[in-house]
Specification:
Two copies of one chain form a homodimer.
Chain A (H helix, E strand, L loop, with lengths): L1 E5 L8 H14 L2 E6 L1 H9 L8 E5 L10 H7 L4 H10 L5 E4 L3 H9 L15 E5 L7 E3 L11 H17 L6 E4 L10 H11 L5 E5 L1 H5 L5 E3 L2 H27 L2 H9 L1 H10 L8 E4 L4 E4 L6 H16 L2 H11 L5
Parallel strand pairs in A: 1-2, 1-4, 2-3, 4-11, 6-9, 7-8, 7-9
Antiparallel strand pairs in A: 5-6, 5-10, 10-11
Chain lengths: 335, 335
């Protein structure tokens, strides 16, 4: 397998991105193609033991920043590492693209017909899926590709999410739900109320509305939401988990007895932290584009990049693009 | 002061509601009017020491359930404890109404022109405010009164939230922000993008977009959102906090050493739990109706009911209804 890693993606690029690519090449034995500023990539590689690894470097003269406006950079930075990397997938020189960079920019460039991948025929809108970092690892779609959604997107998000969970994660007949502020029919905003009958008629294993509490405890395998709400949900969950960790640390340190307790309990806290760590789950697959694309967290470290590559490999191995292509073509949900 | 407590509100009614009313009468010395099934209220009071307390009971023949559809019960249960309780505020026999019951029903009944309070003149939509249960206690508006919002509601939510924070909580010149999936201008869904210029022109102390992480750490005093997103945010935060507590307990118990650590650290965990406990913050003020209304958490215990009464007292004492009436009349934000 040949997997592209955007060396200019993460907040701390190119360090974590290059180190993650090296970890991935070593663990998976695949060819990793690092795309970005050649000199900076090679400087990072110089500090690594890369004997016997299959690593290639492809120069890209530009890099997209987190603050770049996606609609602008799509055109203004035609030589960005994202453009170059995605075009390798388009041309068949690579099987997948992994970036921890600007989500909107990856989306926009992936959708370009010339260098990018474009949509799978019949897909109304590509969507970002994300594994929620609780023990049950439920899958949330959309996590931010579409800030505003129409009700008819939801059944397709459900189909793509179901295929991902079935093909890549191995869950049979995944349960699909709509995220809402109450479980009863009739709860929710206009989007949820209008999407509900569409999902009931979709042929998916739709189980109705679900509240955040039930979602994160695994009452559904795939939960659907517009990209704005989904993104706010993920960010709230991450923020509260980190807030609570800080608070516990502060309170433990406030007195010697609890500080000793905290020390003895350290391994338990470590397990909790690792379980809830967004770095563990890899990245967010961009579903509905005509190729395998994973968008990692901006704060990705090398381990997170490696996990995202592992996830991309699974998507390639289980041919998720073909599964979605066939699934959409055979469903009544196509455009 | 005379404050109505809906005895039929909480999930466990009338126990917590009556016990909370007794706590409030004792702590604040006010008259508490318990409204609901007289026999059941008196049975609860029989188990309490209520000598020297000013408690009244007003019978209401019907009770609203959590599963009742608000649009239906507004008309189908005209003798509910909510109808009776709110009409006491309307007629001037009481100063405020506190209920831990069905939020939609309280809203709907409060808006009735005959028995309810109706809107303050010029208010486009009443909104639920809620103190976010982090140490900084920022205020979120709307927490679920309006699942679908128009951009022009946001400046009024900001005005009402600012007046609440200024008058009731005592924060000078409160900072107002829009909750979004990114801080940069241009981030957000259509609602946020269209609300931004309206807020910039509103005369409020508007500081721009804010992400959940910054919000919960107190970067703004008042954060604005539509009621659907706000409710999902609050529910996600509560769910993650409770999920993490359970996880920590499980992991501590998994081995004897960490279990001893957990025991020694118990007081620290207790402080964290209390700090993040939604019961501490009281309830959600319904801003924009022509009277003081607090809606408590369905899972309220007696302490939470007492806290909600305390919050209602503050709103009466600082005449928040008059402040909003004047504020809206003097602003360019009226209908």
């Amino acid at each position: 397998m040949r997997i592209v890693v955007d060396a200019m993606g993460s907040d701390g690029h190119p360090g974590p991105d290059v180190a993650g690519a090296v970890l991935a090449a070593r663990e998976f034995g695949d060819t990793i193609i690092l795309v970005g500023d050649q000199a900076r990539i090679e400087a990072e590689l110089a500090g690594q033991d890369i004997t016997k690894l299959s690593l290639e470097v492809r120069h890209a003269a530009q890099a997209v920043n987190m603050t770049d406006k996606p609609s602008v950079v799509v055109k203004s930075k035609p030589d960005s590492s994202m453009h170059v990397g995605l075009s390798l997938v388009k041309s068949g020189e690579a099987d997948a693209f992994v970036s921890a960079g600007n989500t909107g920019a990856v989306l926009g460039i992936a959708m370009l017909r010339q260098v990018g991948l474009g949509r799978i025929p019949g897909v109304k809108r590509p969507a970002l899926g994300v594994m929620f970092p609780t023990r049950e690892r439920p899958f949330l779609v959309d996590n931010g590709a579409n800030a505003d959604c129409r009700p008819e997107y939801m059944p397709q998000f459900g189909l793509m999410g179901s295929l991902y969970m079935e093909q890549v994660v191995g869950i049979r007949n995944p349960r699909v739900a709509l995220v809402s502020n109450g479980e009863e029919e009739g709860k929710g905003n206009m989007l949820i109320k209008e999407a509900l009958p569409l999902l009931q008629a979709s042929g998916l294993n739709f189980i109705g509305n679900i509240e955040p509490k039930e979602f994160m405890r695994g009452a559904a395998d795939v939960a659907l939401t517009d990209g704005f709400t989904g993104n706010i949900m993920m960010k709230t969950a991450e923020a509260i988990a980190s807030y609570m960790s800080d608070l516990i640390r502060d309170e433990l340190m406030a007195n010697p007895l609890t500080a000793v307790g905290g020390l003895l309990a350290k391994s338990a806290f470590g397990r909790v932290r690792r379980l809830l760590d967004p770095h563990e789950v890899g990245g967010a697959p961009l579903l509905g584009v005509n190729g395998v694309v994973i968008i990692g967290h901006g704060r990705s470290n090398a381990y997170a990049i490696k996990q995202a590559v592992g996830q991309a490999r699974q998507m390639v191995a289980h041919n998720i693009v073909m599964a979605i292509t066939t699934g959409v073509a055979n469903s009544k949900l196509a455009e």
